[in-house]
């Protein structure tokens, strides 16, 4: 009987993600930044955990999304111009990934939110 009560309690608090001593799920602010020359083709994981690909954007480019703890977030870019290509991934204002390339015009920044 107590196992059933715990299951009901966990279901009741599933919205917050807190159950059985686990940390509650938090919403994070994620900022994708890509810089370089000219334009680039950008693919990224959006706020619904869907991969959005094939968008050609002018650089510099920035996008802000919201994502929950445990979500995988990523931005991948393929530059069209000459010169360095840089991606930066920020979570709640802190830089968590930075990548740059001058020889191959492809960079990816990603992380799983903790």
Automatic annotation (TrEMBL):
A single Gene Ontology CC term: plasma membrane
Species of the source: Longispora fulva
User: What does the UniProt keyword field contain?
Assistant: Cell membrane, Membrane, Transmembrane, Transmembrane helix
**Pfam entry (one):** Mycobact_memb
Provide the protein name. Answer: MmpS family membrane protein
Q: What is the lineage of its organism?
A: Bacteria, Bacillati, Actinomycetota, Actinomycetes, Micromonosporales
Q: Which family does it belong to?
A: Belongs to the MmpS family.
Localization per Swiss-Prot or TrEMBL: Cell membrane
